[in-house]
Specification:
The chain contains 8 helices and 18 strands. It is of the alpha+beta class. The chain folds into 2 domains: 154 residues, Diaminopimelate Epimerase, Chain A, domain 1; 154 residues, Diaminopimelate Epimerase, Chain A, domain 1 (Roll). A hairpin with a 3-residue loop joins strand 9 and strand 10. It is globular and about 50 Å long. It binds 2,6-diaminopimelic acid (API). 2,6-diaminopimelic acid binds next to strand 4, helix 2 and helix 6.
Length: 333
């Protein structure tokens, strides 16, 4: 059976889109997990690997034009992917000739739409990040029986840092830090402990972001992701960081925030809900690139054959990365 994989990125957070609706038969979940682990491997995977796979499926109910599942590089499944949903929005928008629609995700159908390009040649999309919850039970957080964690120390992690935990809806632990801490080893130390599979605080793991305030409505977010490790950017992490900026660090609802990350830059706007039909009290608009790097077709047998060298598989390169690199180079802000 032939499988086409399209390598895409949002802020250089890279994924392969795997469209199940194009296959002779649906893949089983164990097949999806093993394919993800194989193609994402940064050494032996496809085209230098990726941070995971975005599985596109038919929607399970009326309204959305497609469904997105998020599989981390280690094979674990996440409920949401902010950088990824922008690329799936571009993919589905092209396939269905629509520019403003909903995508079904694990917990909600989310609004996406094509947005004004961040720079010439940069296909840009806006995605709704929602539902959002601070409840420890929604986060898989276990710390001193706290129902929520807002700007609190966690002694077992650090005697200096203050943390806020929020699900968007995947779990994030956010800490506002100075520049030295942002670029130092603490993020890796704390996040690898919390994602080691048996710590008592986040037994199911958590995405951890350190945030530096560069100026008014201007942040730098560095993230160590559950199921992946360090990534160039994490859309849900930047959205969670933006919400914490508004609630705790002097930011304001409905104002456009510029969020830089190691892979580039996105814009966010934090909203307080007035529409009872929306999923939760807060939601975030995430605006950023949806870059398509190229695609290739391999067979399931090749993917299942450990002797088949994926690094030798050619991709039809779109050439879009040149424009994306020019965009990042222009970010001398
Ligand atoms: N990189 C993704 C997040 C993936 C989430 C995954 N790491 C998890 O929650 O386990 C983003 O742009 O939002």
């Amino acid at each position: 059976m032939e499988i086409t994989l399209t390598k895409v990125h949002g802020s250089d957070n890279e994924f392969f889109i795997l469209d199940q609706t194009k296959l002779e038969r649906p893949l089983t979940d164990p097949e999806i997990i093993s394919i993800t682990q194989r193609v994402s491997d940064r050494k032996t995977g496809l085209w230098n690997g990726a941070d995971g796979v975005l599985v596109v499926e038919s929607p399970t109910h009326a309204g959305p034009i497609g469904k997105m599942r998020v599989i981390n590089a280690d094979g674990s499944e996440a409920s949401m992917c902010g950088n990824g949903i922008r690329t799936v929005a571009r993919y589905l928008g092209q396939a269905h000739q629509q520019s403003d629609f909903k995508i079904e995700t694990m917990y909600a159908d989310l609004l996406v739409k094509q947005a004004t390009p961040l720079a010439p040649g940069i296909k840009t999309f806006q995605a709704e990040i929602s539902p959002i919850s601070f409840a420890a039970k929604d986060l898989g957080l276990h710390w001193q029986d706290l129902p929520e964690l807002h700007h609190q120390k966690i002694g077992a992690l650090s005697d200096q840092l203050f943390f806020t935990a929020v699900a968007v809806p995947n779990p994030h632990l956010i800490s506002y830090v100075d520049h030295e801490t942002l670029v130092g080893p603490e993020l890796g130390r704390i996040a690898s402990y919390l994602n080691n599979g048996d710590n008592p605080i986040f037994p199911s793991g958590v995405n951890v972001s350190f945030v530096e305030v560069l100026g008014d409505n201007h942040l730098f977010v560095r993230t160590y992701e559950r199921g992946v490790g360090y990534t160039n950017a994490c859309g849900t992490g930047m959205s969670a960081s933006s919400l914490v900026y508004v609630l705790e660090q002097g930011g304001h609802f409905e104002q456009e925030l510029t969020i830089q990350n190691p892979g580039g830059m996105v814009k966010t706007i934090v909203h307080e809900n007035t529409d009872p039909a929306r999923h939760s009290k807060y939601w975030v608009s995430l605006v950023g690139n949806a870059t398509f790097l190229g695609s290739t077709t391999v067979t399931l047998d090749q993917l299942n054959d450990p002797q088949f060298d994926l690094t030798k598989v050619d991709f039809a390169d779109t050439g879009e990365q040149v424009q994306y690199r020019n965009f990042v180079a222009s970010l001398n802000i």
